[in-house]
Design a protein that fits this description.
The chain is an alpha+beta fold and 309 residues long. It contains nine helices and eleven strands. The protein has helices at residues 60-72, 95-110, 117-132, 138-145, 179-192, 194-217, 220-236, 242-253, 279-288; strands at 2-14, 25-40, 45-48, 79-85, 148-151, 158-159, 166-172, 258-262, 269-273, 292-298, 304-308. The strands form two sheets. Strands 1, 2, 3, 4, 5, 6 and 11 form a seven-stranded mixed β-sheet that branches. The longest helix has 24 residues, at 194-217. The termini are close together. Bound molecules: (3R)-3-hydroxy-3-methyl-5-(phosphonooxy)pentanoic acid (PMV). (3R)-3-hydroxy-3-methyl-5-(phosphonooxy)pentanoic acid binds next to helix 4 and helix 5.
């Protein structure tokens, strides 16, 4: 018997980085998925279609999740984990979180642990900490729960009822980066300007709550304005760069309501909202400059798992 789990990727709509310091952030699950198979084996091992060798540093967090769950739930850690990835790594689209969530979900299914999505997100944090240092937990939360959530550390995530689908445009710069390093940059700004930084945390919380309301109402034009403000603030704390600013400018020039970097920045992806009539030309305009660009429909369901013989 083997257990299979699929977890969605994600985009942070507003509030990245500030969420690490207590702000509300808004995130959506995206359709590209990570698929993980967990099956009993003579010894522990991980194979991935992206990294080779179960001792490769990228795969160590997977073993941490399995070890910790096996210890907590008195389960057998001798399993073979196979990962099939459809989400580019280092793109700010949550490939590591989706993988950890799918590992935790498949391990739970194989051992009939019956864990709910909140528990799965909690278990996957062991792997996320191993990769990112001190993450807020927003990535595993959205990959596990799916849909669209307002999140801040220490509060239960709030799921948004959209009442219909919405489209987002995602464009990948092709530049990878370390989330850990980017979190460190922002923490430096906080150290230098503590009181200014705390007003930004409060401001971003307000901005995320407004963005959630606009998204729920389908007011994409106003949502776009909020994205533009959020991008400017991320630039001010040092996590944008010339490429990302150029992509945002291009999206604006092609008629988007607004655009911003999404995730840790310094590379990774840009997220935009656009009038329906402009979406095609935005996607083709960015693609023509070599950026992997696609339109996604949200909401997308969270992690799911099943057993196969
Ligand atoms: O997973 P990434 O690289 O998209 O970034 C995660 C979002 C951050 O806010 C930068 C970090 C965090 O843990 O919340």
């Amino acid at each position: 018997m083997k257990a299979i789990a699929e977890a969605p990727s994600k985009a942070i709509i507003t509030g990245e980085h500030f969420v690490v310091h207590g702000a509300w952030a808004l995130a959506a699950a995206l359709p590209r998925k990570e698929r993980v198979t967990v099956e009993p084996s003579a010894r522990f091992g991980v194979v991935s279609d992206r990294f080779s060798g179960s001792r490769s540093p990228e795969l160590v967090p997977v073993s941490r999740v399995v070890e910790e769950m096996a210890r907590e739930f008195s389960a057998d850690p001798k399993v073979k984990v196979s990962i099939r990835s459809a989400v580019p790594g280092g793109a700010g689209l949550g490939s590591s979180a989706a993988t950890m969530v799918a590992v935790a979900s498949a391990f739970s299914r194989l051992n009939t642990l019956g864990l709910g999505v909140d528990e799965i997100a909690r278990c996957s944090m062991v792997g996320e900490r191993n990769i990112h240092g001190n993450p807020s937990g927003i990535d595993p939360a959205i990959c596990a729960l799916g849909g669209v959530i307002l999140f801040r550390p220490g509060s239960p995530p709030k799921k948004l009822a959209l009442g219909g689908s919405r489209s987002l445009i995602i464009s990948y710069s092709g530049m990878g980066r370390s989330t850990r390093g980017q979190i460190g940059r922002v923490s430096q700004t906080r150290k230098k300007f503590p009181s200014f930084f705390s007003t930004l945390v409060d401001g971003i919380s307000d901005l995320s709550r407004s963005a959630a309301d606009r998204l729920r109402e389908g007011d994409m034009e106003e949502l776009g304005r909020l994205l533009a403000v959020n991008h400017a603030i991320l630039g001010a704390v040092g996590v944008s760069n010339e490429t990302l600013d150029g992509m945002v400018d291009l999206m604006d020039a092609l008629g988007c309501y607004g655009a911003k970097l999404t995730g840790a920045g310094g590379g990774g992806s840009v997220l935009a909202v656009a009038p329906e009539a402009k979406e095609k030309s935005v996607v083709s305009g960015l693609s023509a400059r070599g950026f992997d660009t696609f339109k996604v429909e949200i909401p997308v369901e969270g992690v799911r798992s099943w057993l196969e013989r």
